[in-house]
Structures are given as C-alpha cells and as structure tokens.
Amino acid sequence: MESQFELEPVSVERIDILESKLRDHEKKLDKLQADRLSTCNAAIVQLAAESRVNGRLWWHKFVPDDFNVNSEDDIVTVLQPVIYSIGAIVASTPEINCNTELMKNGMSLQIAYAGGLKDCPCLTPLNAVTRLQKDDELVIICSHKPSSTSYLSVVRLSG
User: Fold this and answer.
1) Residue 87: exposure state from Cβ atoms within 10 A (0-12, 13-18, ≥19)
2) What CA–CA distance (Å, rounded) separates 54 from 41?
3) Do 74 and 150 fall into the same domain?
4) What is the pLDDT of residues 6-37, one digit of tens each?
5) Which of 57, 95, 142, 156 would be 43's cystine partner, CB 3.0–4.6 Å?
6) Which of 50, 56, 79 is nearest to 154 (CA)?
7) Residue 4 lies in a domain
C-alpha cells in the first residue's frame, strides 16, 4: 500500500513569519519560566540579639521583604504565608532551671532546657518547621541573661 500526498507550494515569507512567531513564543516561555523561578527563591531573615527585655531577646533591626521586626516589642512578624524553617541559637549564662522558648502567636512551638558549667556560656538550639500565616508573630523567650550574641534564622521553604 502506497500513500501519496499533494504538497502545496509555501512562500518563503510565510515560513519567515512562522519562524518569527515561534521565536516570540520561545522568548515568552523563557520569560515565564524565569519569572516563576524568581518567585520561588527562598526568603531568609537572619537576626542577632545581645540583650533581652522582659525575657524577650532584643533583635537588631533588619527588615527583609517577607518579615517585619518591631523594635519596640522584639516581635518578628510574617508578611508572606508559607512554610518556614525557624532556627535559633541562644547564648546565655548558666543558671539552674533556665529555659528558652520559641513562640508563635503566644503559643509554644518548642522549649529547650539548658544546663551549663559555672563560668561557661550555655548555647541552646531551637529548630522548628511550620506553616506561618500573614501577621503571625515569632518571639523567643529566655529565662536567663544573654552571655553573648544569639541568632535567629527564618527561611521560607515553599512559595
């Protein structure tokens, strides 16, 4: 069985137009892919604190696009609702029954009890992965005096 096709002549101008349209669509597709990748980049906030007020670590001011740090009450407020990884290292003087607590909207996400040797600073790690909504508030409460700089890192995991 043999098949035959009749081909109609196509002008070079029509081929040029089709090639041009194809290039335009490829450029648009590349731009859409680049835009999508740029919106998926992780947002990161890294804060440092060397003192506390009313038990809360007092964060040095730093304002990225996804977070707000209120210098009056030391609250880190979330501006973009997604899943975040929250990590902290709290440096403190060793005391009996001292604890450090990571809180979201007044509710405890994690409590770590620290112990240490006399005259040796105590480092308490905190780590949580959680969904944060717009205007959620993060606070770290310490029952002891800071001995050196403490750190808080918040990384957006999903877009």
Assistant:
1) middle
2) 35
3) yes
4) 888 888 888 888 888 888 888 888 787 766 65
5) 156
6) 79
7) no
